[in-house]
Each structure stands twice: as structure tokens, then as C-alpha cells.
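Lab notebook page, bench 4
Experiment: in silico fold of construct C2
Operator: M.H.
Input chain length: 396 residues
Purpose: comparison with the prior construct
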Amino acid sequence: MMSYSEKYPIRQERLIDGFLEMIAIDSVSGHEASYRDYLQARFDELGFAGVEDDAGQRLGGDSGNLLFKLPGTMNRPPLLLSAHMDTVVPGHNIKGELAQLDGHQIIRSAGPTILGGDDKAGVAALLEAIRVIIENRMDYPPLEILFTVSEEQGLLGIKNFDFSQIGAPIGFVLDSGGDPGTIVVQSPCQNEIEYRVRGIAAHAGMNPEEGRNAIQIMGRALAKMPCGRIDPDTTCNFGVIEGGLARNIVAPFCRVKGEARSLDRSKLDKLTEELGSIFTAEVIANGGEPEVEVVLLYPEAALQAEEEVVQLALRAAENIGVAPRLESTGGGSDASIINDAGIRCANLGIGMKKVHTIDEYIRVEDLIADTAWIISIIRQAADGYTWRLDPAGSSL
């Protein structure tokens, strides 16, 4: 079997150095401007200018989404490739290092921070793939390369993106934790839910009987509400609790932030209604005033194995000797919103491990495989989609 570099002339040292450069640039959600400038400069070197939208202004951040359109060398349908620029905290002053783990060379954080491979590994692999294609004069279809902001805050960047700019019928997001070859074909819908209790303040030592403790009322309600794994498709969680004014004041308010997810919208709706009903009944029964606020963060997405976007990724993986796998996930991604916009989009596993922790790492071999897979996807797309065309020439 050919190595990735024998099949495609990936410059491994440049790829690794570029990834280390990227993770050293602070880009926590809402503060992606320096990283945006870095990407602008790299694509400028290749002769392509990006267009930044106003998502940053809408969200109160310092950068918008960044879109590059590469015309391509052949008349084919455009292909969308996307990754997000932002990271979670602790994400300041990241320093990466090469190390060994279980016989594999890895890249990890050298300090008490995340690595930022989520999603800079996807960005680094995408940039190297474009460099290889341009430098080696490979044919490629028109490419629409989208880097988004504030993905980690609830897919906010992509939600504020104008999809009329996109002509691609299919696309790929490089942002799943599975090994290279993983193709996410099913992802859940998610509701963000906030539960609020209003009680009555009183002095905790002098006249507590005149108060209604919102924290205690909230606790009684939470004890009755389902939490965790509900069924194979459905989960819920209570993640943040806030309330009270001081230790010597009967708490007049309490707030809990939670969520519910499911691969099945009807199950999500049923669980959300059940949670709200139990909460409301228990709060009223204990003398409090309940409030429930529900926001749909993103819709469910499901791709069929026979769809072109899936088949393209499968063929591309097999082409480089990577075993493809179709999987479902319990997490959302920009792919959820892209699919909802009418573009069939798969999220691809790029091998990032233990993301959102200070133990995060990625294997060097996976970073190289990511790059080869992207090149292979682009080359497969250059060979032509198997679209059936209507008389007007638009894809059906």
C-alpha cells in the first residue's frame, strides 16, 4: 500500500509546523481576528482573496466568517469544505509539542491548556491539501472554503452566514473526533432549555418563614426530572445552576441551564415537554413561580449511504487506503446548519482526541491522513459528480 505522501506529495514538515503555528494563535470564541488574519495571509500567498461577512458584528466578536472561492480548473459543480476558527478555553498562549504515545507520534499541549486541534487540525489539513493541489497543478472543481466563527458557542457563526453565497450542492465539515475515514451521517437536534424559579427573599435568621427559597424549590423539581441517557437516541443534562443573593438571605431566584438532544425530533419534543411539565408542577406545588425558556439550537441531520456526498467520501477514503465508517453522533456541528440550508453535508472524523480538555492530542499520522483524504475528495470530485441534470442544467 502506498503511503499518503507517495500517493500525494504532502509536505509533512510544513503541515506539522503550520499546525503548531495555528494553535499558538489565540482564537477563543468571539476573538478569532488574529487567526482570521493568518488564514487570509496564507491564502493570499496562493493567490486567493477571502471575503469576511458581518457575523462578528452581529455576535459582538472581532471577526466574521471567512469565505474563499477558488474557481477550479474544470467545469464541475462546486464543492464546499468547511472548518471553524474558534476554540474553547483554556485556549490562551497555547504551546504545542511533539511526543510519543503508545508507539505513535502525537502533538499535544505543552502547558495547562487545550491543544486547539478542535478545529485547527481540520484547518491545517485543509490548507495543506489546497497547497498540494495548487503546487502540483492538479485539476480540481470550483472550491468554496468556509471558515466559521463561534462554532463552540452554539454554531453561532454558521447561523449568521448568508448561504446565498454558496453554489455547492454538497459539502464536508472537518470537525468530528472519529478517526480519519469516519463519516458522520446522522446527528441530533438539540434544545437549549433554561429553567427559572422565583421565590421570596427574607432574612435567613430573623424571619425565614416569610421567604420562599428558590434554590430549594429548584432542587426538588430537578430531583423529579429525568436526566442523562433517556434512550439510545435521546439525552438530557442540567449543566449550570445559579441563584441567591447571599448566605443569609432566603434565595429569591434560581436558574438552571440545561439541554435535551435526540436523533428523533418527535422524541426531543416529547422529552422537552415532559421536563417542562414536571418542573412547572413541582415549582408551583412548592410555592414558587416557574419560567421555562426553550431554544432550538440546531436541527437533526440524516444522510443516506447512497447519497453522492457519502459515496464521494467513501470512495476518497478507499482511494488512500483508509477504512471508511458510517457513524451517528450525539453532537452537533456546522454540518447541522449547512444541511438545514439545503446543502447535503457530511461531518468527517479527523482524529482529534480528548477535545475540550488539557489532555487533548492528535496523532501525526492522522493529521497526514486528514490531508490525504481531503485531497482525495477533491480529486474524486474533479472526476465528476454522478448528478442527474434537468434540461436547465441544474442538479436534481
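Observations: The chain has a mean pLDDT of 95. The chain has two domains: 4-187+300-382, 189-298.
Next step: discuss at group meeting.
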